[in-house]
Input
Amino acid sequence: MNTSTNPYAGYRYPAEIIGHAVWLYFRFTLSFRDIEELLAAGGIVFTYETIRQWCLKFGQQFAKEIRRRQPCPGDTWFLDEVYITINGERHYLWRAAALRRLRPREARSLLL
Output
């Protein structure tokens, strides 16, 4: 008896394409038809119904992963600012930087 652990086995498209379509649906507020158009612009053509079926089958796994990666409520943000002179003209540069606290599972994976 041969049991496959790959959930994408038997599908026409590679796992990367299926994963990207499902990720787009759950990460952004896009409709199935919007995702169909986005991927068609990149040369990947399939129907919105295919995306709907993928989202039903693989969506819970992606949604759980996205929720797990959301920032913690206590994250701290800093604003780095600097004025520089280029060719005698002053420019203001800034960036927002997050001081992110790692969850115990993430800290373990960095050590391994």
Notes: Residues 15-69 form one domain. The helical segments are 15-27, 32-41, 48-69, 104-111. The chain has two domains: 15-69, 76-111. The mean pLDDT is 78.
